[in-house]
Design a protein that fits this description.
The chain is α/β, with parallel strands linked by helices. The protein has 13 helices and 19 strands. Helix 9 packs across helix 10 and helix 10 packs across helix 11. The longest helix is centred in the C-terminal third of the chain and has 24 residues.
Length: about 475
Amino acid sequence: MGNHVGDHAVVLGASMAGLLASRVLSESYTRVTVVDRDTLTGVREPRRGAPQTSQAHGLLARGHQILEELFPGLTRELAEQSDVPLGDLNGDFRWYFSGERLAHGHFGLACVSVTRPILESHVRARVQALPNVTLIEECDILGVEASRDHSRITAAKIQRHGSTTVETVAADLVVDATGRGSRTPVWLAELGYERPVEEKIKVGIGYTTRYYRLKRDVFQGDVSINPVATPDAPRGAIFSRIVQSDPLHAELSVTGMLGDYPPTDHDGFTEFVKSLQAKEIYEAIKDAEPLSAPVQFRFPASVRKRYERLRRFPERLIVIGDAVCSFNPVYGQGMSVAGLEALALRRHLRSGVPNPKRYFRSIAKSIDVAWDIAAGSDLANPAVEGKRTFMVRFGNAFTEKVIIAAMQDARVTDLFFRVACFIEPPSAFYRPTNLRRILWPRPYRPPAPVTAIRSRQPGDQEGRRAA
């Protein structure tokens, strides 16, 4: 348990960020109330308040570690109760860049292949089981109240569906986890504060997802087949087994950029899949049985709100997750960054009531790494608008060398994913041994492990080495 800080914390939004914030707040507040507009209890399907949950999601390795830290045994629970496939991110996932497969091998970087609604339902059940956490469903969030001088937030204003009564919920701390549609900038302006500066990169991403029952096992023991979008091959996909015991039950999400949205009709969707660099995906689905109609989600731009640059900010208000920074979803960073922000909040709570400005400065460091990776990768496409500084151009040129080396050397592939998954800092690329492998690559493929990682769990010896 953490340091006791106050009586009541209110979390606005039961997103993954909101659930993770609630978990760490439960260590420091007598009561935690989570408010959300959707029906949540028992829900294991996509929900209206999070339309992107219909699409394939990625949980990066660092995010996986954080979930396991906050909810011990969650990985085993997912595998045993929801039959979720587990694997090694390098050894059990097929990665293609520009039509070439990266060299692969088992290095202990654990990964789960789980749909967002299933993952959310397990995390939400863990949070609801905490004795001092209460979840209020089907409730609109109307705003916040402040002290007379507007220096401190004192309450949240909510209205339950079907009621005409506006409730004022007094709080020692309010956490905004309402996602991209966060109203905190509006609330700040109403209270006489500046709005945060916004940075945007227009990517015009379209996702279309469909479920299939395959006629043959194209995975052959692998968890997922992933052709990654690149400037010369801007269409990508995530094609995954979603049930460990049934390799014929698959989820396919395809992506297009800058308005190249994957169609939602059967023939158009199938033709889009045919254009992917990983040809085995089309061969697998062309005669497969569709289990769902194609569902589309569009993401116009990555948006970062620069709260850390504000000179004034009211006390007792924290913002977390997509409400601070919403990343291009193809990089799978959102949940992991939210986890890093939750751990930062936990560290601040150990010293008392968190100071918002210090909190924003601390999470900016994690966001910087993720934003640089995502924004830099997007700006590698010359059709994406944005300022290409020397560092962006250098970073993209160097990343190209990393990918070329990773096509030959599985250790470079492992390093690439450790950096992309926030296990290692970007500076790890420039360590002498790693730099030699990148600049003068030689083929290296490790032997297959005696024991596959899918039989191991975080906390085992291999998991500890990966951390």
